[in-house]
């Protein structure tokens, strides 16, 4: 399913969750904040070189816009790994690239600036997941591991899930060396005719992990936006050579 979404100035709201009034999911843009270049303007990344006061104000604006309290958010210092945190209380953690919870009024979130954010909602068990998947996390099947953890913890089954594969670097822009390309199935890479390098489809590879778990394709949406092609609206680590801000993708069950 193509990723239909409702985009405001500050954030995109994936419509794949719109039939469920008790869940809120959002993905920030780079607009509406106070940060100067090269972090202009809604930089939500705590671990960037931006002035912390700017990030604090940006996060206040974002959470106010989506109707959330930042004190109710659980997030992690991400390490491009495959560890999944079962969240029982809000806070700032370290070493996890996926967070799951079934606690109402707790938001789980991940920061990105080319990597893929994946949001999942289990409507029967009222559980959610926020996942950060770069190429390492994708190869390590972090989406599959997060879903397995949801099944073990909450009894999640595939047909009860809706999922969103968010804005990231698209296949047309993600050139990689052979040491990375060889780790991806042929279905998710192509050879660029000009550079002769592999171009990897992170969206497609992570969507496939959702499907392999058994989530129907009709219950999966994929963002139509690209951090490279739509760099005026989204931060891109690659396009901006590492000096840029971070978006935030969050999901939570309303209390």
From TrEMBL:
Q: What's one Pfam family the UniProt record gives for this protein?
A: Cu-oxidase_4
Recorded catalytic reaction(s): these are: adenosine + phosphate = alpha-D-ribose 1-phosphate + adenine; inosine + phosphate = alpha-D-ribose 1-phosphate + hypoxanthine; S-methyl-5'-thioadenosine + phosphate = 5-(methylsulfanyl)-alpha-D-ribose 1-phosphate + adenine; adenosine + H2O + H(+) = inosine + NH4(+)
Classification via InterPro entries: Cu_polyphenol_OxRdtase, Cu_polyphenol_OxRdtase_sf, Cytotoxic_necrot_fac-like_cat
**A Gene Ontology molecular function term of the record:** hydrolase activity
> Any keyword Metal-binding?
yes
This protein's UniProt keywords: Hydrolase, Metal-binding, Transferase, Zinc
Does the entry feature the keyword Metal-binding, yes or no? yes
Check the record and name the CDD domains matching this protein: YfiH (cd16833)
Instruction: Report the sequence similarity comment from the record.
Output: Belongs to the purine nucleoside phosphorylase YfiH/LACC1 family.
PANTHER family membership: PURINE NUCLEOSIDE PHOSPHORYLASE LACC1 (PTHR30616:SF2), UNCHARACTERIZED PROTEIN YFIH (PTHR30616)
Q: Which NCBIfam families match?
A: peptidoglycan editing factor PgeF
State the protein's name.
Purine nucleoside phosphorylase
């Amino acid at each position: 399913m193509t990723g239909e979404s409702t985009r405001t100035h500050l954030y995109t709201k994936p419509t794949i969750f719109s039939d469920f009034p008790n869940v809120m999911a959002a993905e920030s843009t780079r607009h509406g904040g106070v940060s100067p270049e090269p972090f202009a303007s809604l930089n939500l990344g705590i671990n960037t070189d931006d002035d912390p006061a700017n990030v604090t104000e940006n996060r206040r604006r974002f959470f106010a816009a989506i109707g959330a309290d930042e004190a109710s958010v659980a997030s992690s210092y991400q390490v491009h790994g495959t560890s999944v945190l079962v969240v029982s209380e809000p806070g700032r953690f370290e070493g996890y690239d996926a967070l799951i919870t079934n606690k109402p009024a707790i938001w789980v979130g991940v920061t990105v600036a080319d990597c893929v954010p994946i949001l999942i909602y289990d409507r029967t068990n009222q559980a959610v997941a926020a996942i950060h998947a770069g190429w390492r996390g994708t190869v390590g099947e972090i989406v599959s591991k997060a879903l397995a953890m949801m099944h073990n913890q909450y009894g999640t089954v595939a047909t009860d899930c809706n999922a969103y594969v968010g804005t990231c670097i698209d296949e047309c822009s993600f050139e990689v060396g052979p040491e990375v390309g060889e780790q991806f199935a042929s279905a998710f890479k192509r050879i660029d005719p000009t550079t002769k390098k592999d171009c990897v489809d992170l969206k497609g590879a992570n969507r496939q992990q959702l499907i392999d778990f058994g989530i129907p394709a009709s219950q999966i949406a994929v963002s139509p936006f690209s951090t490279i092609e739509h760099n005026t609206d989204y931060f891109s680590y690659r396009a901006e050579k590492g000096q840029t801000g971070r978006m935030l993708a969050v999901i939570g069950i309303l209390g």
